[in-house]
Amino acid sequence: MRRLLSVGALVLIAVVGASAPREAVAQDAAAFVRTLGTEAIQVLGPSVAPAQRLARFRQIFRNDFDVAGMGQFVLGRYWRTATPQQQQEFLQLFQEYVVQAYASRLGPYGGEPFRVIGARPAGDEVIVSSEVARSGGSPIQIDWYLVRAGGQLKITDVYVGGVSMKVTQRDEFSAIIQHDGGRIDGLLTRLRQRTAAAQ
User: Fold this and answer.
1) N or C: which end of the chain has fewer CB within 10 A?
2) Model-level pTM?
């Protein structure tokens, strides 16, 4: 009995010890998103010039998003068949494309009040839930998925109104590649055109 109690105590200590860092990471992630989200929503406000919005979003995306991980996920199985040069160009174009996509998708909420409403561990990630108030409408929920990489928190996906932007982009890009016979050259061409036209 004494041995069972000792084992039980060790298991309890292990569980509490394991959950404490996870809770700390969740709290860190919530604070991270609170600062980042507030800044991102404010920079989309009507008083901010479009060029300044994109410039700030580029900086946010480069510093705080897992660009390489998101890019590989979005390209899916085609990442393995791409040449190193194609992979590098894709990540550069993907970064600019996502900056423009996020600025456009979040644009209607620019300048509105932003608040974090919770954070929870989910496997290796932390999901931070937030909402943006809308004048004359219900708040829109934005869920931020984060991982800790190299001692830093990085965003891996953003769900706006329940829709994953990363999955949406993967489906869109996959359809373009399949239409071009499984080659990514067509996707690269389209991304060059789209990002150049929006600048």
Assistant:
1) N
2) 0.80
